[in-house]
TrEMBL record:
The lineage of its organism: Eukaryota, Fungi, Dikarya, Ascomycota, Pezizomycotina. The keyword Ligase does not apply. It comes from Hyaloscypha hepaticicola. InterPro entries: NAD(P)-bd_dom_sf, NmrA-like, NmrA/Isoflavone_reductase-like. Keywords: NADP, Oxidoreductase. GO terms for molecular function: oxidoreductase activity. It comes from the Eukaryota. This is NAD(P)-binding protein. Transmembrane segments: none annotated.
């Protein structure tokens, strides 16, 4: 049993991970929160603690006795990475052994074509720098690819993760692809991710810097074949040019509809277009072909297979 601190535990992925940690009944969990209103004891083995991420002394105190820190605060809530950098600094002083930065939102091997996630690379560089003269903090980048649950949109299939639609729209039997590219995509269910995180906490030895989690590694064309099989009809495919995407031009007749709750007001429409362009562009350039470090460390773990998941979700749906 170890003591785990979760920063940003009120977020969607954070809550999914906390639920799985609690269900394992192995560890003591401390949820760090900016919001004093939510502070209080919750499930057995879980404690909430209010913190000020601008106060390093307070963070050091909060991390006393902590073995592992899992960071889930969204970039839009920490645009300069101030909270995450301060927590990293505090973790080093407090003697924390392991730190998992906010890779969960990135989910890919590279941020190429996705400027809204550039802050992830800055944190990676920061962690490299603090260890440049000798390791002072063990860390890993959990990278699961795209959540498979998003292909179930608009249906919610887990407790906390809200459905977001993608360039492959199962509900309306349509897709947008990059002309001339059959991209490799990695899809992992959030349930599998949370289980792997719990197993990773229990692993002896040092975490690898990158912990790629490859639930399913498939071509876009394969996803479309599965889609047509489980949806019982041919998908309408629109093709866009890579050169247009690189100029920020989207020629498709439709775009994304559901945005992340961290995006507000008049920024929603712009962000939806940016994310769709970025996802298409990055897929063509190989950013969603995630490595398989965790698969190798957990050879007996059985990941949810894409066709099984989608068949169950879409069975009987109009």
């Amino acid at each position: 049993m170890v003591k785990i601190a979760v920063a940003g535990g009120s977020g969607q992925v954070g809550q999914e991970v906390i639920d799985t940690l609690v269900a394992s009944e192995k560890h003591e969990i401390v949820i760090l929160s900016r919001d004093k209103a939510v502070v209080g004891d919750g499930a057995s083995g879980v404690t909430w603690r209010a913190v000020d991420y601008d106060n390093k002394s307070q963070l050091i105190e909060a991390l006393q006795g902590i073995h592992t820190v899992l960071f889930f605060i969204q970039l839009m809530a920490d645009p300069e990475n101030t909270a995450q950098k301060n927590l990293i600094d505090a973790a080093i002083v407090a003697g924390v052994k392991r730190f998992a930065p906010s890779e969960w939102g990135r989910q890919v091997a590279s941020t190429i074509g996705m400027p809204w996630w550039s802050g992830k690379d800055k944190i990676k560089e920061y962690l490299e720098k603090v260890n440049e003269n000798g390791k002072v903090l063990e860390y890993t980048l959990f990278q699961p690819g795209l959540f498979l649950e998003y292909l179930a949109a608009p249906y919610k299939t887990v407790k906390h993760l809200e459905p977001l639609n993608t360039m492959i729209d199962f509900q309306n039997r349509r897709a947008i692809v990059v002309d001339g590219y059959d991209a490799i995509m990695t899809f992992t269910t959030v349930k599998d991710l949370t289980t792997v995180v719990v197993l990773a906490v229990d692993l002896a030895g040092e975490w690898p810097v990158v912990e790629g989690i490859r639930g399913n590694r498939v071509l876009v064309s394969e996803v479309l074949k599965i889609g047509e099989k489980v949806r019982g009809r041919t998908f309408a495919i629109e093709k866009v040019k890579l050169a247009d995407l690189e100029k920020g031009i989207l020629t498709a007749s439709w775009t994304l509809e559901a945005s992340h709750p961290s995006v507000k007001g008049d920024q929603v429409e712009k962000m939806l277009k940016t994310v769709l362009i970025g996802t298409l562009l990055s897929s063509a350039k190989g950013a969603w072909d995630v490595s398989d470090e965790m698969n190798q460390l957990l050879p007996d773990f059985k990941f949810t297979q894409i066709e099984d998941f989608l068949t169950e979700v879409w069975d009987g749906k109009p």
